[in-house]
Amino acid sequence: MANRRRFLSVALAAGSTLAAGELARAAADGGDDRPNALGAPLSPYGSPSPFERSVVRVATTLTPTKFSSWDFTPLQDLHGTITPNGLFFERNHGGVPEIDPAEHRLLVHGLVDNPAIFTMDDLRRYPPVSAIHFVECSGNGLTEWSKPTGKTVQLTHGLLSCAEWTGVSVSTLLRDVGVKSGAAWVLAEGADAPLMDRSIPLEKMMDDAIIAYAQNGEALRPEQGYPLRLILPGFEGNMNVKWLRRLKVGSAPFYTREETAKYTDLLANGQARMFTFVMEAKSVITQPSGGMQIHARGERAISGLAWSGRGAIRRVEVSTDGGNRWSAAQLQEPILSKALTRFVFPWKWSGEEAVLQSRCYDETGYVQPTLAQLVRVRGVNSVYHLNAIQSWHVASDGTVTNVHA
Ligand code: CO
Asked: Which of 55, 104, 236, 281 has the highest CB neighbour count under 10 A?
């Protein structure tokens, strides 16, 4: 009975009470709302409702062209933990190539016993594996190091998405070609205009790496690497090479442009951190978040996302007073390793100013840092790997804005 009473109180807080006459009219067959014409016909491929037209990826003006650029997932408008394929964030370094899968090949060579060229048909003959994992650009939050800049959670955290990936285990493929002794690194190269490439530890490739051809049940979208991309669960987005055309096994890193001039983290003392692969534990409140307006006082669920490149999320805490007091949020199932986890936290807003924050703990015991703690260790030269606690200020008029608390 306690649960039922609680549900009713929330329903009354959120909705509006109806007079008996209104109730009767709303329930009656043949009211004003009754459909009086046929709806739309069947369609070969579904699209969102026209009323959801504002739920789109957005780009920023940080890059001079749309061809070596990125756009952001609308986290504030999404539910659960899976990102719809059309809203999965984009990042490319030379535009989206159009690749005919019948022509596409994957070359595996270097320190292997049997160098091989795989067609898409060859790859589909292997037993498929499926796994749900997030992908986050290591530049996610790049504008947020020194001052709060992004107006919405889309712009502060939207280089982050999560999908079910299906393909072939890299370990299966590498066992098939036979890795020679002395092998320790693998170069992964894309078939895009700049032949984007990264060095990956062999250990990671033999652990949980996937050569994916499908995402959320359908073939990869072109902007996500159609027809093949590498998925390295928990590793920075840039290493999840799209339009994958080549794996070269070697004994040392290859020191490509994307892991020397870029995706290397310059510290305050002039030293640079290289090969910073793992995306450390991070969380953010998406409801409510920057740019929103809270219209009604009373009960309202706070909700957000937590994730860690080192494994599963164990705990999320929420503060509504800028980090003085913290309370445990509820984690929604499923809680998967290296995947987005949804948390919810009941809140009652009485019209007072508030600063909303979340902080997460992963299964290794790692705790998401404050921005001050992170800056003390990393400085502000690098834009990569910002995983600090995010603060949203709620004004007494209900306006929600991005702040540094
Ligand atoms: Co890195």
From this structure: 281
